[in-house]
Amino acid sequence: MNDLGSTLRVWVNNMRNKMARFGILNSLLAVVLFTALLSSCNLLKPATDPNKDKVYKDEEVGDIQGGKVYDPNTGTWRTVNEVEAKVDTVRWADLSEEKYPPIKTDSPVSGGGGGTKPNTGGNNSGGTATGTGKGNVTILLPFMANAATSGVPESSQWAVSFYAGARLAYDDLEEEGVKFTVNVVDSDESSTAKVSSLLKGNDLSNADLIIGPYKRDNVNMLADFAKKNKIPLVVPYTAQTGVTEDNPYYIQVNPSLKAHCEVMTKHIRQSHQPENVVLVALDKAEEKARFKFFQDANSVIEKGKTNRKFKELLVPEGAANFHSINISQFLNSSSTTVFVVPSWSNQTFIYSLLRQLMAKQGEGEDIVVYGMNMWLDFEQLDFEYFEKLKLHVSSASFVDPNDERVKQFKKKYFQSYGTVPNDEAYLGYDVMLYFGKQLAQYGKDFPKQLDSRPSDVLHGRFDIQRSVADPSKHKEDLDYYDQLENQFVHILKFQEFKLQPAD
Fold first, then answer.
1. N or C, which end of the chain has less CB nearby within 10 Å?
2. What total number of domains does the chain contain?
């Protein structure tokens, strides 16, 4: 990283020119993009050494801070990127406004329609775009550019990465002859005032596709706006159900928790019988409620022929209760016992449970654990726990480093920005490329086609299906649905000290 400082300066200059063509609305975003990359140094740090000292202590574990934080506004987990080591290779420099003039336009840049390339028949992000490509696309995310002079807020770094990936996707669309008018708007989601103001103007009402926003309150407002104005709204991060009703224009990219539980249940039932599956969580209303997702999914597999439900174990809250969780009653020495733990709020609980499962496994029991991918950021948990307990997790995103498309994207991203892409960059690229192609081919009515057009993308797959919160409404009207939701979820297995696609 000796040349990182000079690389970033060149990159910022290139990004100024690119953003001017892209119709960026905030002149300070270049500063955001520059400073956000400082945190990317963490991505180049060595991976955790699997041979480090193991921790198998019986004493109480104190509060542990993980690498992800839960955002109650969206119901999702966000990665916290912090620069832990001293950065001595980057030198700040004031850029001359004469040499590098700031972007001051508030007007979008329009592009005309163009020809197309022949469809190769592949399934990469929805195939090759066809059509004129005319249309207005608005990306609405919290870049928090007004705070860029004092450093980039953590909450905006992911938005910058998302934008950087979307920028490269737009370049690919242009190569196929698709040229949209693209507006990039800073939603400043410290409140709902900015989005509320935008809804009163023409910036959003003229859009043919809106990507964003992030905060739940803003998502609610945009969902109503999209339904009323019949504008497709692609929400990349919110994963909560019940945001909107009877809204065919609301497209949720991030699978809901219900979708995760259903896919996990299907995977478990491929190899295990219900009587050997145990659901474990804290005795809290919100955690106990998750059991229903698994039990309902299992009931569908059973097709009502039997009443073979998963067993359930609720552990009382309180550190004193974690030392002797009664798991022996569920073990079956003649077969594998599967423990499914849809819990992530208390790291001490997870550590104690896995430690006791490890002890039983040491006595000869065959145990498999299905858990949450947030566990991988729990500092107290050693990777040997995951390896020996054959940990399986569900994930909305998995980037295969051996995929040739991924290799090409990494190369292009690094050449463009001087850093490596993270999950948000992959998602930004996939969202812009896939939905841009749908808009180019079908116009604003493309949501009607989505449930028949699944597509492999860099971070996984888009399998957009109709979703109904209240099944009784669908029984009354077979055409009724509340929203469109991506139903594809990866099942990953921790093997050879890393996550890999499960069999």
1. C
2. 2
**Strands 498-501, 68-71: pairing kind:** unpaired
Q: Kindly list the strands in the beta sheet with 136-141, ordered across the sheet, starting from the edge strand earlier in the chain.
A: 181-186, 136-141, 209-211, 233-235, 250-252, 483-486, 464-467
- Per-range mean pLDDT, top range of 18-22, 74-78, 444-448, 478-482: 444-448
Residue 387 burial (CB < 10 Å; 0-12/13-18/19+)?
middle
How does residue 175 score in pLDDT terms, banded at 50, 70 and 90?
very high
**464: DSSP letter:** E
Judge if 108 and 163 occupy the same domain. Answer: yes
Same domain flag for 104 and 243: yes
Q: Indicate if 248 and 262 belong to the same structural domain.
A: no
Angle at which helix 4-22 crosses helix 29-36, to 10 degrees, equals 150
The sign one gets for the Cα dihedral 472, 450, 79, 213 is negative
* Domain match, 371 and 424 both: no
Dihedral pair phi/psi, residue 199, rounded to 5°: -65, -20
Number of Cβ within a 10 Å radius of residue 357: 24
26 pLDDT above the threshold of 70? no
DSSP structure string for 105-174 = --SPPP------PPP----BTTSS--S----EEEEEE---GGGGGG---HHHHHHHHHHHHHHHHHHHHH
Q: Is 224 left (phi over 0), alpha (psi -120 to 50) or beta?
A: alpha
Same-domain pairing of 199 and 309:
no
Give me the CATH number covering residue 282: 3.40.50.2300
- pLDDT at 127 (0 to 100): 53
Q: HSE on the CB side for 249, CA within 13 Å?
A: 23
Q: Which domain holds residue 453?
A: 97-254+402-488
